[in-house]
Amino acid sequence: MPEPPRGVESDPIADGFTVDRWLGGRLSLVQPEGGHRVGTDAALLAAAAGTPEGGIVDVGAGVGAVGLALIARSERAFADLIEIDPDLARLAEINVARNGLEARARVLRLDVLKSGERRAAGLVDEMSGCVVTNPPFFEPGTVRVSPNRGRARAHVLSPAEGGAALEAWIRSSLALLAPGGRFVMIHRPDALGAILAAIENRLGALALLAVHPAAGAGAHRLLISGVKGSKAPLRIAPALILHETDGRLTAEADAIHRGEALVDWGA
Description:
This protein is α/β, with parallel strands linked by helices. It has a single domain (38-257), classed as Vaccinia Virus protein VP39 (Rossmann fold, 3-Layer(aba) Sandwich), CATH 3.40.50.150. The protein contains 8 helices and 12 strands. Strands 4, 5, 6, 7, 8, 9, 10, 11 and 12 form a 9-stranded mixed beta sheet that branches. The protein has a 3-stranded antiparallel beta sheet with strand order 1-2-3. The radius of gyration is 17 Å and the shape is globular. It starts with 7 loop residues before the first strand and ends in a 10-residue tail after the last helix.
């Protein structure tokens, strides 16, 4: 979602594109100069997922930032990067190669809501130990859509047959998650009711972590984590504050943006 870029150093490489050193230089990302760009939400999601091993699926991967951050951090992990937009999927492929991760990452251009497309791409339900996702934040018809095609796709979910688009996105993502696997998502706090309805009893050990732009300000992001098949109860993790009163990042947020710290779930 739109946010000021943090922890990113950019150089132009061609008209309309930049190469960005992200997470303190741990990754080099080619991305569009305009439209939706990697920033705080991606850094938070990557830090919230910890250091998973084995198979990871990044649903709505964009240029590949989160999935690549996870396998760069964990040598025993490999990732499927799912992206419907052909231009972003191509950039994700470039970024996989640019970071030397071809042996442990593949980009799948498909609609995650369509089980047939998932199967045709070799994605087997309940086979991934970790699924991460940063869905578009808005349902179709609820906001004015940007004329920029890439930005519109990043902000507004595609219509889903027979139900709400966010519910369909979450349930399609959870279909890929193995029993005992971990699901991690970032979204808006006001979507919590819809998120919990979509999850139903599919996940346990749910943890909710509110992200506040500054102390005393309302939360503007919500991190959600859960384990498939767990019976452990829901808990509220300690909140994360992003900025000091002078606008500088807090020490914790700065370390996350630099790739030097993980989100503290308080467990």
